[in-house]
Structures are given as structure tokens and as C-alpha cells.
Amino acid sequence: MKEILKLSNQLCFPIYSLSKEISNAYRPLLESLDVTYPQYLVLLVLWEYKKLNVREIGELLHLDSGTLTPLLKRLEAKSLVNRNRSTIDERIVEISLTHKGASLEESAECIPKQLKEKSSLTDQEQIQLTHIINKILNTIKT
Amino acid sequence: MKEILKLSNQLCFPIYSLSKEISNAYRPLLESLDVTYPQYLVLLVLWEYKKLNVREIGELLHLDSGTLTPLLKRLEAKSLVNRNRSTIDERIVEISLTHKGASLEESAECIPKQLKEKSSLTDQEQIQLTHIINKILNTIKT
DNA sequence: TAATATTGTATTGTACACAATTTAATTTTG
DNA sequence: CAAAATTAAATTGTGTACAATACAATATTA
User: Fold this and answer.
1) Residue ranges per domain, chain B?
2) Domain HTH marR-type spans what residues (chains A, B) (predicted)?
3) Which of A27, B93, B123, B141 has the maximum number of C-beta atoms within 10 A of its C-beta?
4) Tens digit of pLDDT per residue, chain A (142 long)?
């Protein structure tokens, strides 16, 4: 058995596991909002930027249209967002919050703190972690 | 706009992005083996442990039967693993490597180094990262 | 030992995630 | 200005991921 191929020697695996566990940790917190974790991320950027088209959301969240189109349709079905084709450039679909979607921000406010408590990290560790991850992200992109 | 809900203030998001980018970074390297990243993880544990049942693989990789059953069937269809129901306890399905699956380890040997180069991390940073991630993983599990 | 509980896997349903392709609209350029 | 190139979404197909459920086999216990 090649030592280098042992699971415990893979850097990728803890990251992969952690990402899944984070989604799982969000699930109960997002239940009251009736959204999934990726849907919550879309709401986050819409609360921040008010109005974005599909491409812009994809750039912010690193998601492509094959993921976003059905996800946004589900948010639309829940009356959380509006999907409107731009009249200036009809290729573009503008996504905006409905009143209901915008008002959900109030209920979401308590979520980040709850997650941070679950993570049990010190501020120092959180800064280190973000720094290292961003370093990888900046170089890994082909 | 609540500052705490800004995307850039979320710890979860870089982890989520990084996990996806790692899968993407593996894709071209795994193409020659004709496996996906989760399939590669299954092969990793099989190369290490030789023989595991479905439950054991799930515990090692934090995956449930709903994910593993079809994934293992795909590996079986590629003639990389055998699925055999245990004669001692017929509920158990033992997963073992075929000759082809075992021999793939040779070709995989070069992959971890290539990934590590893509990450551009120093050994020190890699240790820090693993440490912090494991700290979160140990506490986040409900 | 018969009734009950637990265990291990499979199945079903919903929701990402991304490659590849398609379609329509806009821009570029010859 | 028309042909070609580019752009933005949507669609299709494959493959995870997980909750919930089903089901059969084994273990427990009254």
C-alpha cells in the first residue's frame, strides 16, 4: 500500500468532509426558512446586492447556469424571488427579491452566530483558516 | 443590509467553494482513471483496507447507503470492484477490488503530488489547515 | 421460542453540481 | 449591413448527497 494514497494523508478529504458537514449543520437552522444551503447563499447575495442576473450570481457563488436555473425556479416557486427577462438585453434574466424574500433577512440574522458557535473556532483560527483557504482558491483556479 | 449576512463575512462559503474547486481540480487528473472524485475516495480506502463492507466505507467517508449503493454499482460496472453478499450475514455486502481496480493504484500514485502542487501550500500551512479543519469536524458533528 | 428491536442495504424522491449542447440575442468585423 | 463570433440562459445527461422509507436478516428479550 502506497503511504501517499492513505486517506489520512489526503489534504482534500478533510475539506470535502467539512464542506458536507457544514451543509448538514445548516440544514436544521435553515429549516424554518424552508431553504437549502445553496438557496440560502443565493439569498445572501441578493440581500447584499438587491438585484443580480443569473451570470452575476454564478460568478459570486462559483455556480453555473445548469445549477442556478432550476435552483432559482425553486426559489421563485416559493415566492422568494422574481425572475424577469431584461428588456434591454433579452438574453439576461434579472433576479430580484420578492417582499417575502426580502423580509426573510430578519429571520436569517441569527444564523451566522449559531453556526460560528457550532464551529468552536477562536477568532484567530478563523482568520488563519480563511487566509489559507483563500490562498488555495487563488492558485487552484485553472 | 445586515453586515453579518454579507457573503464575505461567512466562514462557510470559502470552505464550500474550496471543496468544489478541489473536485474540479481532481477531474482532469482522474480522467485517465475514468473515475469521479467520490469514486476515487472509495478506491483510496479499498487500496488501504483491501476489503470493506458498505457500512464501513460509509463510516470512513461519511457517506450513507443512498449515496454509496449506486456509486459502488457504477464502480462494479467499470469492473473496478466486486460486490458480494456475505454468506455469514446476508445483510452485508462486501466490497473488494478486482484485479483491474487494484492495479489502478499504480496509475493513481502520481495524483496526490500533482494536487499538492496545485494547492501551493507550504507544509506548515498544510498542517495548520488540517488541524483547524479537524477541530471543526470534531465539534460540529451533532 | 415467538414477539420485538436492531442492523445493513436498497429504493425513492428531492436537490445540487457540472459538462456539453442548444437557442436566442447581441456584438464584432469584414 | 450581413456573416461570424460571442454572450446569456436554458436544457440534457450523469453523478453525487441525503432524508425517508422499505425490507430482509440477525439479535435481543420477555
Assistant:
1) 3-106, 110-142
2) 8-138
3) B93
4) 789 999 999 999 999 999 999 999 999 999 999 999 999 999 999 999 999 999 999 999 999 999 999 999 999 999 999 999 999 999 999 999 999 999 999 999 999 999 998 888 998 999 999 999 999 999 987 5
For Cα atoms A69, A73, A77, give the angle at the middle one, nearest 5 degrees: 175
Best A60, A67, A140, A142 member to test B by mutation, with max B CBs in 10 Å, is: A140
* Residue ranges in A4-142 assigned as alpha helix (H): 12-30, 37-49, 54-61, 65-77, 99-108, 111-119, 123-140
* Cα–Cα dist B126/B120, whole Å: 10
| Nearest by Cα to B14 from A22, A57, A101, A70 | A22
Asked if B20 has any chain A CB less than 8 Å from its own CB, the reply is yes
Collapsed DSSP state (helix, strand, coil) of residue A96:
strand
Q: Nearest nucleotide (C1') to the CA of residue A19?
A: D17
The CATH number fitting domain A13-109, selected from 1.10.287.990, 1.10.10.10, 1.20.1250.20, 3.40.190.10: 1.10.10.10
Q: Does domain B3-106 have CATH number 1.10.10.10?
A: yes
